[in-house]
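Can anyone check this?
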Amino acid sequence: MRLLGVGGAVCVITPMRRRHLRRVMRIEALTYERHWTRSVFESELDQVGRGGRHYVVARSDGDIVGYAGLWVVAGGSVPTEAHITNIVVDEANRRRGVASALMCHLGRVARAEGATAWTLEVRATATGAHELYRRFGFAPAGVRRGYYENGTDAVVMWCHELGDDDYGHRLDALDPNRGGR
């Protein structure tokens, strides 16, 4: 459980449970034209604890204000990698540190599981998200043309520093729990 001050409110990051899906689905539907279905979230939650899946929610004053997901893929003969599946904050709580707190949490989970790099796809038009990910060391590595609804491109971003000793310090510096942003 992680606590942080979000605009004067307390935010707690906890594992996502099925009971959270009603609010998660509301945020998902308001954020994306073509969004994950409840059954996709249920399938992902069924794999938590095995298959390297991790899903969390951020709650403020008892209400879910954001959520995030991570897949950690063991590499066998190559280093372990992590993939951020989603990170979403409801519109009223954006730019208040919730996404940074979720990213810090996911980064620590990925590092604890031995991941040395992590990746994600982000809408080419989501400039605020690009700024957030750059602060976490992500850099563009390619484009998936027409990846999202309405033909919006996805920028594939990678951070290969996740396993570095110094990266833990970066997470500490960015963590709103520790005064970062």
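Reply from J.R.: I decoded it. The chain is about 30% helix and 35% strand.
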